[in-house]
Amino acid sequence: MAALVALAKPVTRPVPAKAAPAPPAGLRPTKESIPANQSQSAVGRLRELAADSTVVAMVKELEQAQDHRTDELINERKLIEVRHSRQRDEIEDSILRGELSDEDAKKERTKLDRELKDHSMHILSEMDALRRKQQAALQIVGMPFFKVTEDLRTMETQKRALKKFLEFSAGVGK
Asked: Does 15 map to a domain?
């Protein structure tokens, strides 16, 4: 019990004589963000990485691979939607001809809805796998704040860091 009481006591820290300079606007820490000293060292690392043509090429390849996979998944979904539209028309025609009861038609529509939902879940799964792969690759090259995570705040910080990296690599933030 004494250990818990000791932990509850406030810790006093000396006040620095001079405040540290604010980090660049793109990486200013927020409550959800990062400590200022970590942000400042991260900016330096982002600049180093942005000057490395191998890292810049890798990031561009990751971006292109993501765009390509996203396009593939969207096109697959569009094909399913077109096929479903035809199948729904066939269901309606079968009802009008008396070949399909309303109950059977409802079952067929439910199957189509399930297939589309399953494909949507597949898209999310694919995009999650791609994100994890990108996070791992960026962690390996030493991109600040990158690790494989599901944490939304960390991912927001990663997006801000990547945006700053891209600005540096384009010569905008130098």
From this structure: no
